[in-house]
Write a structure and sequence with these properties.
10 helices, about 375 residues, alpha/beta, six-stranded mixed β-sheet, Aminopeptidase, Alpha-Beta Plaits, 2 domains
């Protein structure tokens, strides 16, 4: 490896190029424009690029594979090209450098980390010797909305791999993620009976009143000591203040740290029924990201990364996250390490930024993982 292989300026310029192509999930044309640039970066490398056509309003996914080591389980890197930032965000949050921070929409979550993994792969390809394991890098287009069109691809590639490295951003000063809560989403539909609220209220059956009962039931499931959160985040109902509401609706988010918690609570939520005669309650939904629980294989992968970081001169700590990522889909069956992207702050905000000082250490760590995993 050349002495300037991890020079910061060219890496930051590469990240800038990716950030300047805005790629909100709901704009597959923009995501595909970024995918074109990413794919072009592999043309001079010993790697193949497979493009999986997007569908259901989502952009394409890219699967890049090293020319070596593809016959046996190897290393899978998971990244996403989509961001939550709507088109035009680059005007409000332009790419700029201020001290140790570089700003831009999606720079921290997660174009910075995705680019570091790509750059580390370029350096591996430039070495005289190939590492023992093949390297596959999957770039998906829909992670920010729960990976509905990429989940099957992620799970299939994850089951073929021996290790999964995820380039989501680091947390709390550079910590990697070794566990995440599972995520479930539900919709509540309530149908009552309308009536005039002033002259014939007794003829009505209020869907909104029933929704209040449902919300109380859901709120009672919160248990912070066990790490369980249930949040009714969206409610709608009724038509006019003088009409007993016929219809009401809610969207619910649940987070659980273990599958045992999910097995306990998902059926309870789906089984919620009406307390009021003449009112129907229907709940639909499911666990859409299983919990990422630290396994012995995952713990060993983290221990190895921690040793490599110490050799590189920094301490690598781990953390548990309440948020989900694509690592939730691979961790139940493959050794997975998340949060290997850049350090920074402000994911999903108008001040999103990466810390430039994290670029070198994080890129070198990915490079050493590619070199040493067996």
């Amino acid at each position: 490896m050349s002495s300037n292989a991890f020079e910061i300026a060219p890496i930051l310029e590469g990240i800038r190029r990716w950030v300047m192509i805005e790629s909100p999930t709901e704009r597959p044309d923009q995501i595909n424009k970024l995918a074109d640039v990413v794919a072009a970066g592999y043309r001079d490398l010993p790697a193949s690029v497979e493009r999986v056509a997007g569908h259901d309003g989502c952009g394409d996914h890219l699967v890049t594979r090293s020319s070596w080591g593809q016959g046996v389980p190897g290393i899978l890197i998971l990244s996403h090209l989509d961001t939550v930032h709507p088109m035009g965000s680059i005007e409000r949050l332009p790419f700029k450098i201020d001290g140790d921070s570089a700003f831009g929409p999606g720079i921290y979550d997660m174009k910075g980390g995705a680019y570091l993994a790509y750059h580390a792969f370029r350096q591996i390809c430039a070495d005289d010797a190939r590492p023992p394991l093949g390297i596959t890098h999957l770039y998906v287009s829909d992670e920010e909305i729960g990976s509905p069109t990429s989940r099957a691809l992620i799970e299939a590639e994850g089951r073929k791999a021996k290790y999964v490295l995820v380039t989501e951003p680091a947390r709390d000063g550079g910590k990697v993620i070794t566990g995440r809560k599972g995520v479930a989403r539900f919709q509540v539909f309530i149908k009552g009976a309308p009536a005039h609220a002033g002259t014939r209220p007794e003829d009505g059956r209020s869907a909104i009143r029933e929704l209040g009962h449902v919300i109380q039931t859901l709120e009672a499931m919160n248990d912070l000591t066990r790490g369980i959160t249930v949040n009714v985040g969206v409610v709608r109902g009724g038509t006019r203040p003088n009409v007993i509401a016929e219809l009401a609706y809610a969207q619910v988010d649940m987070r659980v740290p273990t599958m045992a918690h999910a097995d306990e609570l998902v059926p309870k939520i789906l089984g919620i029924s009406s307390r009021t005669e003449g009112v129907k309650v229907k709940v639909s939904g499911e666990l859409n990201r299983p919990p990422y629980e630290k396994t012995s294989a995952g713990a060993a992968l983290y221990a190895h990364a921690k040793e490599l970081a110490a050799e590189l001169g920094f301490e690598l700590l781990d953390a548990f996250s309440g948020g989900g990522s694509d690592s939730n889909f691979t961790a139940p069956h493959t050794a997975t390490l998340d949060g290997l992207g850049v350090d920074g702050k402000g994911a999903h905000t108008h001040y999103e930024q990466l810390y430039i000082s994290s670029i070198g250490p994080r890129a070198r760590l990915l490079y050493r993982l590619y070199q040493t995993l067996r």
